[in-house]
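Input sequence (232 aa), recorded before submission:
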Amino acid sequence: MTTFRLAATPFEYAFPAARTALVVIDMQRDFIEPGGFGASLGNDVSLLAPAIAPIAALLAAWRARAWPIVHTREAHRPDLADCPPAKRLRGTPTLRIGDKGPMGRVLIAGEPGADIVPALAPKRGEIVVDKPGKGMFWSTGLHEILQARGVSHLVFTGVTTEVCVQTSMREANDRGYACLVVEDGTESYFPEFKAQALAMIAAQGAIVGWHAPSAAILAAIEVAGPVRAVPA
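Predicted structure, token format:
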């Protein structure tokens, strides 16, 4: 099995072909577009848009090789049975989870706002999980799905860096995955929080994982040349 290597922080990251999943965390309309939950919290949602193009490039590379891809959506049941009051009633947003907004009920599975932005829409055969929490493993069964596919390494992208991305990466680290977060494939409403999260992840000899730019990852896998997936 081919192993790819790239310069990363704090040191080289190596990952095996076909056993490394690309993870796209919560690239949803509710977080990225005006009128959604992210905006209701008072955030400048335009700050998340720069992550879209790097993620799209990585998705194309993974799809060309038929490597595993995971998309997550933070989304709750319509009856809110999986949304604890401590989460829903926190703070003073203009829209709370479950409220009717411009893109349907906020962060509710099946509503337009819970969809992933069109530029990054999942394709048939890719893993898609709705998660009721910040981390992608809690109450999703994702670990078992990844283990059944032999996945050992995870390359993280998505939003926001310091919340759902970092939480999911820490959960993955505890489960034995070797994780890297893509520097330009993740963003935050608070750029300083992104910088701090990346520093915490890679501190103490990659205590949670590594980080590197998308260009380094793409360059590493292109060494073997493009491999086209067999159409499904």
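Checked by second reader. The two ends are 23 Å apart (CA to CA).
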